[in-house]
């Protein structure tokens, strides 16, 4: 099956994932099972440290904070296997979110 990235964008908070409501964190624990019920599979997933720990690099210029400035920041991502973009999008709709959204993007294959 093809692979897709599900990128999770949440409101910027000082503690990042630690600031999410407990019910959202609990929903993340159930997320892999729900994906399998839809016939997909998580290949890997990572939660990112708070956006304040990031550094942006443009050539020789280094800035503190995330590369893109916005109210919402990239908080983490999953790599999943799905039949096609419609299947990946259906899986992405199950992603537990407190106040942001997700982006689904196909991964290039070698």
Account of the protein in words:
The chain is of the alpha+beta class and 110 residues long. The protein is built from 2 helices and 6 strands; from the N terminus they run βαββββαβ. It is globular, with a radius of gyration of 15 Å. The mean pLDDT is 92. It has helices at 22-37, 85-92, and strands at 2-11, 41-47, 55-58, 61-64, 72-82, 101-106.
How are the SSEs placed, and which strands pair?
Elements: E1 2-11, H1 22-37, E2 41-47, E3 55-58, E4 61-64, E5 72-82, H2 85-92, E6 101-106
Antiparallel strand pairs: 1-5, 1-6, 2-5, 3-4
Protein name: YciI family protein
Domain YCII-related: 60-107
Organism: Micromonospora cathayae
Q: What would a concise description of this structure say?
A:
Belongs to the YciI family. With 110 residues, the protein is an alpha+beta fold.
